[in-house]
Amino acid sequence: DADVTQTPRNRITKTGKRIMLECSQTKGHDRMYWYRQDPGLGLRLIYYSFDVKDINKGEISDGYSVSRQAQAKFSLSLESAIPNQTALYFCATSGPSGSGETQYFGPGTRLLVL
Amino acid sequence: AQSVAQPEDQVNVAEGNPLTVKCTYSVSGNPYLFWYVQYPNRGLQFLLKYITGDNLVKGSYGFEAEFNKSQTSFHLKKPSALVSDSALYFCAVRVDTGRRALTFGSGTRLQVQP
Questions:
Q1: Which residues pair with B65 in a beta bridge?
Q2: Which of A21, A27, A45, A113 has its Cα between 20 and 30 A from that of B70?
Q3: What are phi and psi of A100, to 5 degrees?
Q4: Rounded CA gap, B7 and B20, in Å?
Q5: Cα-flanking dihedrals φ and ψ of residue B108, to 5°?
Q6: What tens-digit pLDDT sequence spans chain B (114 residues)?
Q7: C-alpha triplet B72, B9, B114: angle, nearest 5°
């Protein structure tokens, strides 16, 4: 969905480096999410934010941090990257509860940690 | 707690035949249920959802799904498969109360043979 953009689209980094993945949306949604996708494991939730001041850990938040700089921006950081963080990362947004909560996904960032 | 299971890693069907992709769920309360599709090198795209009302839900590209509360299932179906339906399909669930995010299944790869 072009309304949800992610940068970079591909990234190669080395163990121990700090990296940031960025997500922007023009859908006007309050809710934003970060997932990682690994083969055979589906999508697992890292962090989610229901508004700028409401940030929550997902099922696999260890080793990650997030920043909700504005309603439209939600960044994911790997403070010290490790090889098992190699994955495909997706950002998603959704409207408020009662709107059906359909999530709209960005194109993904493919991260390789050497 | 909420969880979803997709018991088949892969489903193979011939073009023109009906297809079914299975999904079962577990929530403490009433579910919101979703199906998403992922084409190669793309983000996830919304197909359909069940929030309330009619148990048979129709979605994009001719897909439909039936909510079965007694069997806690939400199987995805299509009467006549197309080769272009070949993709990775994800079922997702969340409970209808509280500030929760979606939980995704591990995905089912659908392969439609010409």
A1: B57, B76
A2: A45
A3: 100, -20
A4: 12
A5: -130, 125
A6: 889 999 999 999 999 999 999 999 999 888 999 999 999 888 899 999 998 889 999 999 999 999 999 999 999 999 999 999 999 999 999 887 777 788 999 999 999 999
A7: 110
* Residues counted in chain A: 114
Tens place of pLDDT per residue across chain A (114 aa) = 579 999 999 999 999 999 999 999 999 999 999 999 998 788 999 999 988 999 999 989 999 999 999 999 999 999 999 999 999 999 999 986 655 678 899 999 999 999
B19: its two tokens: 């297809």
- Quote the tokens at residue A15: 């163990």
Q: Is B97 touching A (CB cutoff 8 A)?
A: no
Q: Is B103's CB within 8 Å of A45's CB?
A: yes
Q: How far apart are CA B95 and CA A66, in angstroms?
A: 25
For B102, list phi and psi in degrees, rounded to 5: -70, 150
Bridge partners (DSSP) listed for residue B49: B34
Q: Cβ of B106 and A40 within 8 Å?
A: yes
B109 and chain A: CB distance < 8 Å anywhere?
Answer: no
Is the distance from CB of A87 to CB of A21 less than 8 angstroms? no
